[in-house]
Specification:
By secondary structure, this protein is α+β, with helices and mostly antiparallel strands. Helices cover 25% and strands 25% of the residues. It has eight helices and 14 strands. The strands form five sheets. It has a four-stranded antiparallel β-sheet with strand order 1-8-9-5. A hairpin with a 2-residue loop joins strand 8 and strand 9. Helix 1 packs parallel to helix 8 and helix 7 packs across helix 8. It is globular, with a radius of gyration of 20 Å. The protein starts with a helix and ends in a 6-residue tail after the last strand. The protein binds a DNA duplex through loops.
Length: 298
Amino acid sequence: MPELPEVQTVVSDLNKKIVDYTVADFWSDWPKAIKNKKLVAFQQEIKGRKIINIRRLGKNIFIDLSGGKTLYIHLKMTGHLLIKSQNPLAASRVSGQAKSKGHNYFDDKVNQYIHHIWKLKKGKEELWMEFSDMRKFAKIVLDDTSRIKELPEIKKLGVDALSPEFTFKKIQEILAKKKTKAIGIVLMEQELIAGIGNIYRSEILFDAKIHPERKVEKLPAQEMQQVYKSIKKILKQAIKMRGTSQSDYRDTSGAPGSFQKVLKVYRRSGEKCGRCGIIITRKTMGQRSIFFCSKCQK
DNA sequence: AGTTGTGTTGAAGA
DNA sequence: ATCTTCAACACAAC
């Protein structure tokens, strides 16, 4: 699932691949994903705009366009943006560019659920940004750049987990307001800290050796410091490894990340803990599965 | 073949 | 206010 590291990987790739290209056309077979306007209006308003810069906040992607507009995309669970340099209609007969060891990632089943396509042009060069989204939960919004940060879902976001403003003092302030809640719940709340989802909350707490059900008020400063350090450490490591593709996440070349190879607890219930050897526990917490070692994590 | 689990987010219900 | 449940949707695994 795309959490902060996966979204950061996509944003970095997009900044390398599509800046200075102009939107020439847009196609969709699922216009319900476009939340604030009809398909025709969306097409009219996006055509002819040049891509200036791509940035993110938490798991939200913002593609800034010329003329003061921004394309805001949330990948939700199964969304990924694929950048192709050949006409998608001809892709089946021509070899793709995402090849590695004879394998074309664009051909993977997980990349076949394409519901939206932006055609991009820079002089004679053409690119296609294809949005694969199996479960069709993703969100697309086109609005004035100045209005994006005022959207309710953006305005309510907490501090980004990797931003400079997310200091130890900041996490202390945030947690001071959530005394009676479990740390495993609080870490995932986007209104508090933006970017952490179900995979990384388990991995962060394992790294910090903190039990997910521990109440925030019962975390002394030293243990809170451990949690803080583990948030930064795990997210940065996951970015270096281009995210987790335990299930369906893929990068803009259609290729998987590699953090799933170093997962310590996520989806490893029933297996032995690499630290102490006891069996990893799985529980439901906040309507989602959480994984932890009941011996290592106190 | 039907049921369940998957997980992000927002809305609705208690 | 705060918590829980459901709904959006598709598919793999049982």
